[in-house]
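User: Can you predict the 3D structure for this chain?
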Amino acid sequence: MIWNPDPHTLHAAIALPIRLPNGRPTEQFAGYRFNPQWNDRTMRGHWLVERPRSSPDQIISHFRAARYLEGVIMVTSWGRMMRGHSRRMIYGENNRSRLRAIERAIEFCVVSISSERSIRLAWGRLVGEWTGELGWTPVMASKTLHFLCRAIFAECRMPPVPLDSTMRELGQSWRNGLPNGHRPGGWNDNSFAAYNRYMTAIITWAQRKGWTTTEMETTLFNRQR
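Assistant: Here is the predicted structure, written as structure tokens:
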């Protein structure tokens, strides 16, 4: 993946690295036993295994096999976004036109990420800024793009990683530890610039430890919780 680091965040992340315990990174959440009755959110329900689980490996496998709607609903399950406002934000009225819009958006993301090795255009299509955007939150967009990039680039060490309320709280705490006038912009708005600031910090700290961005985010998330 190609990232253009935010210079202010890069300087701050080097000057004040995040504190981590010694030892190995923690494992990514293994997901839930997945109920295939949610076929109404896939149009087809073409599962690759008899007993699906919303695990990282199975999410990646479904995206790699171009089972995009199946992959998205698995991400929704993995990220605990199956209910209430989160589900409505992702699926709207859950009609076929919305599902087709999601599928087209993911197809666009695959093409743009593969050609540019960047998520800049994909972010705009999922969150906003581009024609046909889905209006997803950075939480859902970042989780989807995390697994999608790992499906496209099998050995990717710097994929985009999930940005949720837990990581935003950690980011605010870290920024508060910096002197006034030396704090980079925050991670709290929906723009790609804000997400890029987040990824600048994650990449900087991951490289310092010799970890992947997935390992860094997972370890920080589990520590913060």
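The CA atoms of residues 118 and 206 lie 18 Å apart. The chain has a mean pLDDT of 92.
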